[in-house]
Amino acid sequence: MIIWLDPQDPFPPVERALGPASDAPGLLAASRDLSPQRLLLAYRQGIFPWYSEGQPVLWWSTDPRMVLAPAALRVSATLRKTLRRVLRDPAWEIRVDADFLAVMRACAMTPRDGQFGTWITDEIVAAYGALHRNGLAHSVETWYEGQRVGGLYGVALGRMFYGESMFAHRTDASKIALAALCAFLVGHGVTLIDCQQETDHLASLGASPIARADFLAHVRAAAAQPEIADWRFDKSVLNHWAWGNAA
Protein backbone atom coordinates (compact mmCIF):
# COMPACT_ATOMS: atom_id res chain seq x y z
CA MET A 1 0.00 0.00 0.00
CA ILE A 2 1.44 3.36 -1.07
CA ILE A 3 1.12 6.08 1.55
CA TRP A 4 -0.48 9.40 0.57
CA LEU A 5 1.31 12.39 2.12
CA ASP A 6 -0.44 15.57 3.09
CA PRO A 7 1.77 18.71 3.13
CA GLN A 8 2.71 18.40 6.82
CA ASP A 9 3.19 14.63 6.86
CA PRO A 10 6.67 13.19 7.32
CA PHE A 11 7.98 10.58 4.93
CA PRO A 12 7.44 6.99 6.03
CA PRO A 13 10.53 4.86 6.74
CA VAL A 14 12.23 3.97 3.47
CA GLU A 15 12.01 0.30 4.40
CA ARG A 16 8.31 0.56 3.53
CA ALA A 17 9.10 1.18 -0.15
CA LEU A 18 7.84 -1.47 -2.56
CA GLY A 19 10.21 -4.41 -2.96
CA PRO A 20 11.85 -5.96 -6.03
CA ALA A 21 8.92 -8.31 -6.72
CA SER A 22 6.50 -5.40 -7.18
CA ASP A 23 5.61 -3.54 -10.36
CA ALA A 24 7.34 -0.40 -9.03
CA PRO A 25 10.37 -1.36 -6.92
CA GLY A 26 11.39 1.48 -4.65
CA LEU A 27 8.11 3.40 -4.75
CA LEU A 28 7.50 4.78 -1.25
CA ALA A 29 4.78 7.42 -1.22
CA ALA A 30 2.74 9.91 -3.25
CA SER A 31 1.72 13.52 -2.66
CA ARG A 32 0.56 16.73 -4.30
CA ASP A 33 3.30 18.67 -2.53
CA LEU A 34 6.59 19.40 -4.31
CA SER A 35 7.83 22.31 -2.25
CA PRO A 36 11.56 23.03 -1.88
CA GLN A 37 11.20 22.13 1.81
CA ARG A 38 9.73 18.73 0.90
CA LEU A 39 12.55 18.15 -1.59
CA LEU A 40 15.22 18.86 1.01
CA LEU A 41 13.58 16.50 3.50
CA ALA A 42 13.50 13.84 0.80
CA TYR A 43 17.14 14.14 -0.20
CA ARG A 44 18.36 14.04 3.38
CA GLN A 45 16.49 10.73 3.76
CA GLY A 46 17.62 9.15 0.51
CA ILE A 47 14.30 9.75 -1.27
CA PHE A 48 13.75 11.35 -4.67
CA PRO A 49 10.75 12.38 -6.82
CA TRP A 50 10.09 10.78 -10.20
CA TYR A 51 6.75 10.96 -11.99
CA SER A 52 5.13 12.01 -15.24
CA GLU A 53 2.81 14.84 -16.18
CA GLY A 54 -0.70 14.13 -14.89
CA GLN A 55 0.46 11.87 -12.06
CA PRO A 56 0.75 12.79 -8.39
CA VAL A 57 4.28 13.38 -7.12
CA LEU A 58 5.75 9.90 -6.66
CA TRP A 59 8.54 9.47 -4.09
CA TRP A 60 11.11 6.69 -4.42
CA SER A 61 13.84 5.02 -2.41
CA THR A 62 15.42 2.29 -4.51
CA ASP A 63 17.33 -0.68 -3.14
CA PRO A 64 20.03 -1.11 -4.29
CA ARG A 65 20.95 2.50 -5.05
CA MET A 66 23.07 3.45 -8.06
CA VAL A 67 26.02 5.67 -7.10
CA LEU A 68 29.17 7.01 -8.71
CA ALA A 69 32.35 7.70 -6.77
CA PRO A 70 33.71 10.89 -8.44
CA ALA A 71 37.27 9.60 -8.16
CA ALA A 72 36.25 6.39 -9.96
CA LEU A 73 34.71 8.03 -13.05
CA ARG A 74 35.54 5.76 -15.97
CA VAL A 75 37.42 7.91 -18.49
CA SER A 76 38.01 5.93 -21.66
CA ALA A 77 41.01 6.56 -23.89
CA THR A 78 38.69 8.24 -26.41
CA LEU A 79 37.14 10.52 -23.81
CA ARG A 80 40.58 11.38 -22.45
CA LYS A 81 41.64 12.54 -25.91
CA THR A 82 38.48 14.63 -26.09
CA LEU A 83 39.24 16.24 -22.73
CA ARG A 84 42.74 17.13 -23.90
CA ARG A 85 41.25 18.75 -27.00
CA VAL A 86 38.78 20.69 -24.85
CA LEU A 87 41.65 21.94 -22.69
CA ARG A 88 43.66 23.10 -25.72
CA ASP A 89 40.86 24.72 -27.73
CA PRO A 90 39.58 28.10 -26.41
CA ALA A 91 36.27 27.51 -28.21
CA TRP A 92 35.40 25.03 -25.43
CA GLU A 93 34.28 26.30 -22.01
CA ILE A 94 32.90 24.88 -18.80
CA ARG A 95 30.45 27.24 -17.11
CA VAL A 96 28.83 26.67 -13.74
CA ASP A 97 25.32 27.96 -13.02
CA ALA A 98 25.30 30.16 -16.12
CA ASP A 99 21.60 29.39 -16.66
CA PHE A 100 20.32 26.64 -14.38
CA LEU A 101 16.75 26.70 -15.68
CA ALA A 102 17.91 26.51 -19.30
CA VAL A 103 19.87 23.35 -18.45
CA MET A 104 16.80 21.81 -16.83
CA ARG A 105 14.69 22.61 -19.88
CA ALA A 106 17.34 21.21 -22.22
CA CYS A 107 17.36 17.99 -20.20
CA ALA A 108 13.57 17.87 -20.47
CA MET A 109 13.51 18.42 -24.24
CA THR A 110 16.37 16.12 -25.27
CA PRO A 111 15.02 12.83 -26.77
CA ARG A 112 16.21 9.62 -25.09
CA ASP A 113 16.11 6.06 -26.39
CA GLY A 114 13.11 4.17 -25.05
CA GLN A 115 11.67 7.22 -23.30
CA PHE A 116 8.59 9.16 -24.34
CA GLY A 117 7.89 12.53 -22.79
CA THR A 118 9.76 13.75 -19.72
CA TRP A 119 9.56 13.62 -15.96
CA ILE A 120 11.02 17.16 -15.79
CA THR A 121 7.68 18.94 -15.63
CA ASP A 122 7.09 22.65 -15.08
CA GLU A 123 6.47 21.81 -11.42
CA ILE A 124 9.87 20.09 -11.20
CA VAL A 125 11.58 23.05 -12.89
CA ALA A 126 10.00 25.49 -10.43
CA ALA A 127 10.92 23.43 -7.35
CA TYR A 128 14.54 22.83 -8.33
CA GLY A 129 14.83 26.42 -9.49
CA ALA A 130 13.97 27.49 -5.94
CA LEU A 131 16.72 25.23 -4.59
CA HIS A 132 19.14 26.77 -7.08
CA ARG A 133 18.27 30.29 -5.95
CA ASN A 134 19.13 29.18 -2.42
CA GLY A 135 22.51 27.80 -3.51
CA LEU A 136 21.50 24.14 -3.13
CA ALA A 137 21.22 23.07 -6.77
CA HIS A 138 23.77 23.63 -9.52
CA SER A 139 24.32 23.19 -13.23
CA VAL A 140 27.60 22.33 -14.97
CA GLU A 141 27.49 23.37 -18.60
CA THR A 142 29.62 22.54 -21.65
CA TRP A 143 29.85 25.40 -24.15
CA TYR A 144 31.34 25.38 -27.65
CA GLU A 145 31.82 28.53 -29.71
CA GLY A 146 29.48 30.43 -27.42
CA GLN A 147 26.69 27.85 -27.52
CA ARG A 148 25.55 25.57 -24.69
CA VAL A 149 25.98 22.07 -26.12
CA GLY A 150 25.66 19.88 -23.02
CA GLY A 151 25.37 19.84 -19.29
CA LEU A 152 23.90 18.42 -16.13
CA TYR A 153 22.24 19.54 -12.94
CA GLY A 154 21.79 18.25 -9.43
CA VAL A 155 21.38 19.02 -5.75
CA ALA A 156 24.29 19.64 -3.38
CA LEU A 157 23.90 19.18 0.37
CA GLY A 158 27.01 19.28 2.52
CA ARG A 159 29.50 16.94 0.86
CA MET A 160 26.79 15.00 -0.99
CA PHE A 161 25.81 15.54 -4.62
CA TYR A 162 22.57 14.16 -6.03
CA GLY A 163 22.70 13.92 -9.81
CA GLU A 164 19.42 14.56 -11.61
CA SER A 165 19.78 14.67 -15.38
CA MET A 166 22.20 15.31 -18.26
CA PHE A 167 21.87 16.32 -21.90
CA ALA A 168 24.17 16.51 -24.91
CA HIS A 169 23.66 18.30 -28.21
CA ARG A 170 27.20 17.50 -29.33
CA THR A 171 29.16 14.25 -29.00
CA ASP A 172 30.45 13.70 -25.44
CA ALA A 173 29.25 17.14 -24.27
CA SER A 174 27.47 15.71 -21.21
CA LYS A 175 30.46 13.48 -20.41
CA ILE A 176 32.73 16.54 -20.49
CA ALA A 177 30.45 18.26 -17.97
CA LEU A 178 30.38 15.14 -15.78
CA ALA A 179 34.18 14.84 -15.88
CA ALA A 180 34.47 18.48 -14.80
CA LEU A 181 31.97 17.98 -11.99
CA CYS A 182 33.71 14.83 -10.74
CA ALA A 183 37.12 16.52 -10.71
CA PHE A 184 35.66 19.46 -8.78
CA LEU A 185 33.94 17.17 -6.27
CA VAL A 186 37.10 15.11 -5.73
CA GLY A 187 38.86 18.33 -4.78
CA HIS A 188 36.16 19.07 -2.19
CA GLY A 189 36.06 15.69 -0.50
CA VAL A 190 32.83 14.42 -2.08
CA THR A 191 33.06 10.65 -2.35
CA LEU A 192 29.64 9.67 -3.76
CA ILE A 193 27.23 11.03 -6.36
CA ASP A 194 23.68 9.70 -6.11
CA CYS A 195 22.60 8.36 -9.52
CA GLN A 196 19.25 7.02 -8.22
CA GLN A 197 18.50 4.18 -10.64
CA GLU A 198 20.55 1.59 -12.50
CA THR A 199 21.15 2.15 -16.21
CA ASP A 200 23.71 0.74 -18.63
CA HIS A 201 24.86 4.27 -19.48
CA LEU A 202 25.66 5.07 -15.85
CA ALA A 203 27.41 1.73 -15.42
CA SER A 204 29.57 2.52 -18.45
CA LEU A 205 30.75 5.65 -16.64
CA GLY A 206 31.77 3.73 -13.53
CA ALA A 207 28.59 3.88 -11.45
CA SER A 208 27.55 0.80 -9.49
CA PRO A 209 24.75 -0.23 -7.11
CA ILE A 210 25.16 -0.34 -3.34
CA ALA A 211 22.74 -1.47 -0.63
CA ARG A 212 20.22 1.18 0.39
CA ALA A 213 21.30 0.90 4.03
CA ASP A 214 24.90 1.71 3.07
CA PHE A 215 23.74 4.60 0.90
CA LEU A 216 21.63 6.07 3.71
CA ALA A 217 24.50 5.82 6.19
CA HIS A 218 26.69 7.72 3.75
CA VAL A 219 24.02 10.38 3.13
CA ARG A 220 23.55 11.01 6.85
CA ALA A 221 27.25 11.67 7.31
CA ALA A 222 27.98 13.51 4.06
CA ALA A 223 24.94 15.79 3.99
CA ALA A 224 25.68 16.92 7.57
CA GLN A 225 29.09 18.32 6.58
CA PRO A 226 29.63 22.00 5.68
CA GLU A 227 28.36 23.11 2.29
CA ILE A 228 30.81 23.70 -0.55
CA ALA A 229 31.08 27.47 -0.39
CA ASP A 230 32.36 28.31 -3.87
CA TRP A 231 30.83 26.68 -6.95
CA ARG A 232 32.98 28.60 -9.44
CA PHE A 233 35.28 26.56 -11.65
CA ASP A 234 36.34 26.32 -15.28
CA LYS A 235 37.64 23.70 -17.69
CA SER A 236 41.06 23.62 -16.04
CA VAL A 237 39.60 21.07 -13.59
CA LEU A 238 39.71 18.60 -16.50
CA ASN A 239 43.49 18.38 -16.01
CA HIS A 240 42.56 15.89 -13.27
CA TRP A 241 41.68 13.35 -16.00
CA ALA A 242 43.48 14.44 -19.15
CA TRP A 243 46.87 12.86 -18.59
CA GLY A 244 46.13 9.95 -16.26
CA ASN A 245 46.01 6.25 -17.11
CA ALA A 246 43.20 5.48 -19.55
CA ALA A 247 40.46 3.17 -18.26
From TrEMBL:
InterPro entries: Acyl_CoA_acyltransferase, Leu/Phe-tRNA_Trfase, Leu/Phe-tRNA_Trfase_C, Leu/Phe-tRNA_Trfase_N. It catalyses: N-terminal L-lysyl-[protein] + L-leucyl-tRNA(Leu) = N-terminal L-leucyl-L-lysyl-[protein] + tRNA(Leu) + H(+); N-terminal L-arginyl-[protein] + L-leucyl-tRNA(Leu) = N-terminal L-leucyl-L-arginyl-[protein] + tRNA(Leu) + H(+); L-phenylalanyl-tRNA(Phe) + an N-terminal L-alpha-aminoacyl-[protein] = an N-terminal L-phenylalanyl-L-alpha-aminoacyl-[protein] + tRNA(Phe). GO terms for biological process: protein catabolic process. Its EC number is 2.3.2.6. GO terms for cellular component: cytoplasm. Keywords: Acyltransferase, Cytoplasm, Transferase. Pfam families: Leu_Phe_trans (PF03588). It is found in: Cytoplasm. The keyword Transferase applies. GO terms for molecular function: leucyl-tRNA--protein transferase activity. It is an enzyme of class 2 (transferase). SUPFAM superfamilies: Acyl-CoA N-acyltransferases (Nat). Functions in the N-end rule pathway of protein degradation where it conjugates Leu, Phe and, less efficiently, Met from aminoacyl-tRNAs to the N-termini of proteins containing an N-terminal arginine or lysine. Belongs to the L/F-transferase family. This is Leucyl/phenylalanyl-tRNA--protein transferase. It comes from Cupriavidus plantarum. The gene is aat.
